[in-house]
């Protein structure tokens, strides 16, 4: 559904179905009644907003109002936005998909096609919570390993990216483009029970825990932004109970992650993002 809606706007109109499917992973739909603040004065978003239906007004810092259509907000704009009718808006994070949005007139680079596992990774929660330069650096530090079907192993101090095949643990399955092991690499301990079992011969990229933990300082640890609507306190919620705690939260609400060590907050951030939440780890 979101892919079809994206195609109504530049720069998505020229994208094929596959590219639209990737872009839609970074989009969400907002629905509000009339006379509500879509974006209050003084707040900023790192996402671009597109008006699907209804009517909205942009309010300048001096109070001047103007009716806006199409792309109604981009990161850096200094405006508030208020709905004037029942309104539907697409919210899109363009940063992870800039590579899709290059003008078609540019010459094609002479490189090999993107491998399917990397294509899938680009649409994953890992890309959403790490800046592009960070995950590129992670990939450069990785070592490739291969496992045979039915082989079992325990995750070392590393994050594992699946290039091919399939691995499972505790009812969760990891295939091309998926990753696992962030519990040990970020939190410093295994969360949950059981070994990993190889369902199909697989190749994985193993990223050392030291390389992963070096990125913790790059997470946006800050005071809670104004649009936070829920809080998860790791001093009160064990990491092993994150999924249970998430079941009590509304996925439509942005979640502030507090307490615990920096690695615990990073692990909780990835876990909540896997579950479809928008989350922000807060400074101590």
Provide structural commentary.
With 284 residues, the protein is an alpha+beta fold. The protein has helices at 2-6, 17-24, 116-122, 125-129, 132-140, 182-187, 209-213, 242-246, 262-274; strands at residues 27-32, 37-39, 48-53, 56-59, 65-68, 71-73, 80-83, 87-92, 143-147, 152-153, 158-169, 172-175, 179-180, 196-208, 228-233, 254-258, 279-281. The strands form 4 sheets. Strands 9, 10, 11, 12, 13 and 14 form a 6-stranded antiparallel β-sheet that branches. The two termini are 39 Å apart. 30% of the residues are buried.
Topology pattern, helix = H, strand = E: HHEEEEEEEEHHHEEEEEHEHEHEHE
Strand content: 25-35%
| Low-pLDDT windows of residues | 104-113
Q: Give the % helix.
A: 10-25%
The N- to C-terminal Cα distance equals 39 Å
| Shape call | globular
**Strand pairing plus helix content: what structural class?**
alpha+beta
Provide the gyration radius in Å.
Answer: 21 Å
How many helical elements? 9
Overall mean pLDDT score? 81
Number of DSSP strands? 17
The main pleated sheet reads as:
6 strands, antiparallel
List the helices and strands and how they pair.
Elements: H1 2-6, H2 17-24, E1 27-32, E2 37-39, E3 48-53, E4 56-59, E5 65-68, E6 71-73, E7 80-83, E8 87-92, H3 116-122, H4 125-129, H5 132-140, E9 143-147, E10 152-153, E11 158-169, E12 172-175, E13 179-180, H6 182-187, E14 196-208, H7 209-213, E15 228-233, H8 242-246, E16 254-258, H9 262-274, E17 279-281
Parallel strand pairs: 15-16, 16-17
Antiparallel strand pairs: 1-8, 2-7, 3-6, 3-8, 4-5, 4-7, 9-14, 10-14, 11-12, 11-13, 11-14
């Amino acid at each position: 559904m979101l892919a079809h809606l994206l195609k109504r706007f530049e720069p998505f109109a020229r994208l094929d179905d596959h590219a639209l499917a990737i872009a839609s992973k970074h989009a969400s739909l907002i629905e509000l009644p009339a006379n509500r603040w879509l974006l209050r004065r003084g707040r900023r978003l790192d996402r671009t907003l597109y008006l699907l239906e209804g009517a909205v007004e942009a309010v300048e810092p001096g109070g001047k109002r103007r009716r806006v259509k199409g792309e109604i907000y981009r990161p850096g704009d200094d405006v508030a936005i208020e709905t004037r009718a029942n309104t539907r808006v697409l919210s899109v994070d363009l940063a992870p998909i800039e590579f899709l949005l290059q003008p078609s007139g540019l010459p094609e680079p002479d490189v090999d096609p993107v491998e399917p596992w990397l294509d899938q990774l680009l649409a994953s929660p890992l890309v959403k919570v790490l800046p592009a330069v960070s995950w590129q650096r992670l990939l450069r530090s990785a070592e490739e390993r291969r496992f045979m079907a039915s082989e079992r192993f325990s995750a070392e101090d590393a994050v594992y990216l699946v290039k091919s095949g399939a691995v499972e643990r505790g009812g969760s399955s990891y295939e091309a483009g998926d990753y696992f092991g962030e519990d040990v690499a970020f939190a410093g301990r295994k969360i949950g029970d059981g070994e990993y079992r190889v369902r199909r011969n697989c190749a994985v990229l193993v990223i050392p825990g030291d390389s992963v933990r070096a990125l913790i300082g790059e997470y946006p640890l800050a005071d809670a932004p104004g649009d936070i609507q829920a809080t998860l306190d790791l001093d009160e919620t064990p990491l092993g109970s994150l999924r249970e705690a998430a079941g009590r939260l509304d996925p439509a609400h942005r979640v502030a992650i507090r307490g615990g060590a920096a690695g615990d907050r990073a692990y909780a951030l990835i876990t909540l993002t896997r579950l479809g939440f928008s989350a922000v780890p807060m400074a101590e």
